[in-house]
Amino acid sequence: MLAPGLYHILFISAALFFIGVYGFLTRRNLITMLMSIELILNSVNLNFIAFNKYLWPQKMDGLFFTVFIIAIAAAEAALAIAIIINLYRSHQSIDVGNAEDLKY
Amino acid sequence: MNITQIIFWILSVVALFSALMVITARNPVYSVLWLIATFFSISGHYILLNAQFLAIVNIIVYAGAIMVLFLFVIMLMNLNKESEPRKHRLLKLAGAVSGGSLLLVLVAALRDTDLKHEHALVNEGNIGLIQNLGKELFSTYTVPFEISSVLFLSAMVGAVVIGKKE
To answer: Are A33 and A96 in contact, with CB atoms under 8 Å apart?
Structure first.
């Protein structure tokens, strides 16, 4: 029970994923929503590395998936922050409830 | 219970607690700081899983670059506890129900898997070292590597175009 196996790591990353989804759905602040997305991406990274280590220890595919996920997360964060700054400039707020120009 | 297991459980508790604090802290600056704590504990997990290079990359890229960007933007917009939007109770309930049902499905699927006998080979394998990763990256994964450089270029141009003043 106490020896850490693949099982426990998968549970931890499932819990991290849940925390990220909950934060994404409940926070109304665009920056904290983006942080929740980073949390979700990190739980997926943990899954990839754990599967790579436990099931195929001689291969490196999981590690490379994680490398590319980190790269894409960096690009995504830069673009999302540019969009958020633009939104802040036009609305003076980053509450998602205020960004409703396309709604009506 | 040896030292590796103790480190594993401590890292897991720290990761889950600081992830909870990320989404419950009212002040966005505290959220960012707790998120950095989460990234450090996840990097500790990577080291335990023999992915040393990725642990360092995780710290440098996430905790070093992305989180500093977040902190700068938060300070630039002067966000604090007072400017944080109020959450509705119904929204919290909806988030808990939908996220909780997702967690339930994941845990139920995990309980049915046949992975209980898999245990760590903690001190074996040098697959995560930078020498092996570099050789593989520039032989098998050359095309995705080059494509990600194009992705970065387009993301850079896009960020400048979106972010510049009218």
So the answer is: yes
Q: Residue A73 sits in which domain range?
A: 6-93
Classify residue A82: in a domain, yes or no: yes
Query: At the topology level of CATH, where does B1-81 sit?
Result: Four Helix Bundle (Hemerythrin (Met), subunit A) (1.20.120)
Residue of B nearest to A15 (CA): B103
Of B28, B65, B133, the CB nearest to A31: B28
For the cut 60, the answer to whether the pLDDT of residue A36 exceeds it is yes
Decide: B47 and B66 in contact? Cβ < 8 Å. Answer: no
Q: What is the mean pLDDT of residues B68-72?
A: 89
Collect all residues of chain B within an 8 Å Cβ-Cβ radius of residue A86: 162-163
**Residue B77: pLDDT band by 50, 70, 90 thresholds?**
confident
Please answer yes or no on whether A28 and B38 come within 8 Å at the CB atom.
Answer: no
Q: How many residues does chain A have?
A: 104
Q: Identify the closest residue of chain A to B33 by CA–CA distance.
A: A35
Domain limits of chain B? Answer: 1-81, 129-166
Over residues B2-30, the pLDDT tens digits come to: 888 888 889 999 999 999 999 888 888 89
Name the one residue in this structure whose structure tokens are 């400039």. Answer: A89
Would you call B138 helix, strand, or coil by DSSP?
coil
Using the beta-carbon criterion (under 8 Å), do A25 and B94 form an inter-chain contact? yes
Residue with tokens 């995990």: B110
